[in-house]
Every structure is written in C-alpha cells, then in structure tokens.
Amino acid sequence: MTNARLIRQLLPRVIPPLAAALLFVAAWQFVVDYWEIKPFLVPPPRAVAERLLADWRPLTRAWWLTAQAAICGLCLALLTGSIVGVLFAQSRWLRFAFYPYAIFLQTVPIVAIAPLLILWLGYGARGVIAVAFVLSLFPIIANMTAGLLSVPRPLLELFELNRASRWQRLWKLQLPFAIPYLVTGLKTSSGLSVIGAIVGDFFVGYGGQGFGLGYLIRTSAEGYQTPTLFATVLLSTLLGVTVFATVGLLSEFILRRWGHD
Amino acid sequence: MTRGCHISIRDLTVTFRESPGQETISRLDCEIEAGQFLGLIGPSGCGKSTLLRCIAGLQPAHAGAIQQQLPDQAEMVAPKLAYVFQSPTLLPWRSVIENIALPLELAGIRRTERQAAAAAAMRTTGLRREHDEAKLPRMLSGGMQMRVSLARAIVTQPDLMLLDEPFAALDDISRKQLNTELMELWRTAGWTGVFVTHNVAEAVFLCQRIVVMSRNPGRIAADIAIPLPYPRASETRLDPEYMRLVSQVADALEQTMRE
C-alpha cells in the first residue's frame, strides 16, 4: 500500500472523531461558562487539562500500572480460557458439568468478588490482576468452546475418512478453525480486562507498590477533586481504547489468513 | 497404478434414528466390479448419498453387509478410499498444496515425500504448481477449488473413489471440463468409482454403468449399462447412441418419480 493511499484511508477515520471531540470540548466549556457551574460539580475542560499537565507523572505511572494489570489479566485469561475451552470441547460430560458454572463468571457481581479475591491473594498487583482475569475469562471460554464445536460436518468426516487421531483432529482441524472465534472472544475480553484492573485497583490499590487509575478514581471522588477525577476517567477511557485497538489490530493481522479481510 | 477394488453390497438396510420405522434404504443388493465406474442416480431422498456414505463407512447400516476386496489379495488388506464431497471442503487456513497433502500428513508420511506426491496430484488435475500451490482456497474460483479437492482425493492413490455430486454447484462449462478430466483420471489410475449425481447427461457421459434408485424406500429401480467406448469427448455428446442412453436413463428416472 502506498503512503498516499494509506493516508486517504486513514483520514476519514481520524478527522471525524477528532472534530467530534473538539465540538464536545467546546460545548462543555460553553455549558460550564453559561450556567456558571461550580468546578467541583463539573470542572471546565481547561481545569482538567491543567490537572493532566501538572500531575502527568503520577497519572502516567498510574495509567501504566493499570495497563500492566489489565494486560496480565487478559493474557492469563487467554491461556486459561483456551485450555478450558479445549477441555470442554473434548468431553461432553465435562462441558455439561462445568459450563453452567463458567456462566457464573459472567454474571457474578465483580464488586462482590473483588474484595474476596483481594482477601485471598493479598493486596498488591496479584489481587488486581486476579480481578482483571476473572472478568475477562468467560468470553474466551465461551468463544473458544463454540469455535472448537462449530467445525462443519464434512470437514470432520474428511478427517474421519483419513483415520485421523483425536489429537490430529484437535491440532490440525479444530484449533485452527476456532482461531477466529477465539479472537472475537479476546476482543470482548480486552475491554473487560481494563474494567477489571480498574475495579481491582479501586478496592485495594497496590499497597506500597504505588497506585493505579482505580485508586485515583476513589481518592479523588472521596476528596471532591473533580478535575483529577475527570482526568482519571479520561485516562481510563484512553486505556480501554488502547487495549481494544491493539487487540483489534492484532486480530486483523491474524485473521487475514482465515479470509476475514 | 491402482487396480480398483470389488464392492459387494448384500441386503443393505439403513434406517435413521430420527425416523425409526422408515427405511431409507431397503434390502439393497449390488455388485460393483473392480475398476468399474458406476453412476448412482435417483430422485432427492432416494438414499443415493446415504448408500455412498455407507460404502465409505460414514453411515452405519441397520442390516446387511458391504464388502470391499482388492483383486489377487488372499489376506484382507483394506482398500484405500477417497471421498469427494459436494463442497470442496478445503481448510481455509491452508495453502493449496498443504490441503492436497493433508491425507498423507494425517497418515504420517514425511514432508518431502508428501510434497512430491501433492505436486504430482496438482499436475494430474490441471493445477499449475508455481502458480497455485501457495494460494489460499478463497483465492480460487469454485471450479479450481473442486480441482484441489480432486487432487487431494487422488494423492493417496486410492483403490476406491466415492464422489457425492462433486460438480453440482459449478457452472456448465466448468462441469463439462471437470467431467472430462475426471474421466481421464479414472482411465489412467484404474480405481473403482461410484459417482452420485442428479444430472443424467453427466452420468451417461462418465460412467460404464448407471444404477437408478427409487425412493421410499431406497431400492434399485434400474441398472443400465453404458457401452459407449472411451475416451469420450465432446463429440460423444452428439452421438445418437449417447442420446438414446440419456433418454433411457431419464425415462427410468422419471418412472421412479411417478411411483
């Protein structure tokens, strides 16, 4: 692809959201000025920008800490979820017995389970990663299992006719077939892992190891430091978008071979 | 060069679990000689695909037996079998040559050996190695995908080739071209072929013998020899004898639909 073409393709995807953001900031400033809203309720954009600039060092450190926890949780979920999916696809009884409890992961209120996880795993990074892990596990299990079990019958019969072993069928047919499903699960989980890391950090922080975005959200809310709260929320969103976009790019690269271009 | 295997079907009855009282195939007997190219034709639901799947061992029979035997083989050696599905059933993440080599890979044949065999199969089926081997299936047309599917079927040098309406989804030109190529493959390799189709003209053009099946339950309604000489070419389609045979088979088929 030539540079000119790349730019022509990217421009329509960059300019409109940027324009929308500018419009939003302008409207925000106008509303705050016009109705003279108190800064501790809605701070003006300038105050948030100032906070971001003044505190950029602790803010970026918090951002990075939360990002690390989210990525670690997501990677652990990818590994565990894939293995659980393979086990579920291999044994019907295992699936029947445990799949309903896997759904539990999806429905459990994370605010209830986060303090428990912290209690078991202790304060610090381990607890935060565990919350991110629990929250992002289910979509990976569900999609991996579905992918492994969705192989069309003729393909399975082709392997049967060639007397493929169970292992060959799994390794050469089911796993490659499930990759696009797994990637879809990973995309869903990428957003959840960020939420998990923030929620985990919200409850515990990292003890003596510093603090992440969740801790900042809590302390700034409790202290009515609304500009810091706004700045933190902005950074949290940015983190979510970054992780999601990275996984999205990665999946596009992987799926090219599978014909999803 | 393979010799083809003899198939003997005795008293075959198939019922599906979903409809226990109803026999899809009922007490069917059929002998297929080694190296014969047999066409299986009949109305939808007559059990012709089921019969093919029974021969392949993909569908269990309720009663009866199917024996496959290679000629001059005192001890029982299982004949090598290839199956061509209605759709090309290629693995979308594998290149053309990796798809063709798959049966050999599953049999544990070494990489260099299976690459060589796959390249030979490509040549035989009219695929150009340097041009097509690295392509992914989705980059190919329907006709080319079917060629890859055929190449994968012949790569093991089978004794028995089972084809389940392989060209049904293709346009007329590709279908005729692939018919001629399939016929050549059979003539040079010598396997026993069972070809399921809806298309009377295709069956008469390809086969030495056509079995017409009737439905409810699936039975043999007519067994028609096609004594046209090989090689058959596009001129064959203009031969009065060919036309007579086509209308004979079509009449037999119509008869089964009326019943």
Give a written overview of the molecule.
The complex is a heterodimer of chains A (261) and B (259). With 261 residues, chain A is mainly α. Chain A has a single domain, classed as MetI-like (MetI-like fold, Orthogonal Bundle), CATH 1.10.3720. Chain A has helices at 3-34, 45-54, 56-90, 92-107, 110-121, 125-149, 153-161, 166-204, 213-222, 226-255. Chain A is globular and about 75 Å long. Chain B folds into two domains: 1-80 and 159-259, Rossmann fold (3-Layer(aba) Sandwich), CATH 3.40.50; 83-156, no CATH class. The mean pLDDT of chain B is 89. In chain B, the strands form two sheets. Chain B has a six-stranded mixed beta sheet, sandwiched between helices. Chain B is built from eight helices and nine strands. Chain B has helices at 48-56, 96-106, 111-124, 129-132, 142-154, 172-189, 200-206, 240-258, and strands at 6-15, 23-32, 37-41, 63-69, 81-84, 160-164, 192-197, 209-214, 219-225. Classes of the chains: A mainly alpha (261), B alpha/beta (259). The interface between A and B is medium-sized, with 19 and 20 residues.
Task: Report the end-to-end length of chain B measured between terminal Cα atoms.
Answer: 43 Å
CATH superfamily of the largest domain in chain B: P-loop containing nucleotide triphosphate hydrolases
Tally of alpha and pi helices of chain A: 10
Content of β-strand of chain B: 15-25%
Write down the CATH class of the largest domain in chain B. Answer: Alpha Beta
What is the spatial order of strands in the main beta sheet of chain B? 5-6-7-3-8-9
One letter per element, helices H and strands E, the order of chain B comes to EEEHEEHHHHEHEHEEH
The profile of the biggest β sheet of chain B is:
6 strands, mixed
Q: Could you name the CATH topology of chain A?
A: MetI-like fold
Measured as a percent range, the helix fraction of chain A is: over 70%
Overall number of structural domains of chain B: 2
Topology, number of strands of chain B: 9
Identify low-pLDDT runs of chain B. Answer: none
Level-1 CATH class name of chain A: Mainly Alpha
Distance between the termini of chain A: 15 Å
Rg of chain B (C-alpha, Å): 18 Å
CATH architectural category of the largest domain in chain B? 3-Layer(aba) Sandwich
The DSSP helix count of chain B reads 8
Determine the structural class of chain B based on helices, strands and strand pairing. alpha/beta
Mean pLDDT of chain A: 89
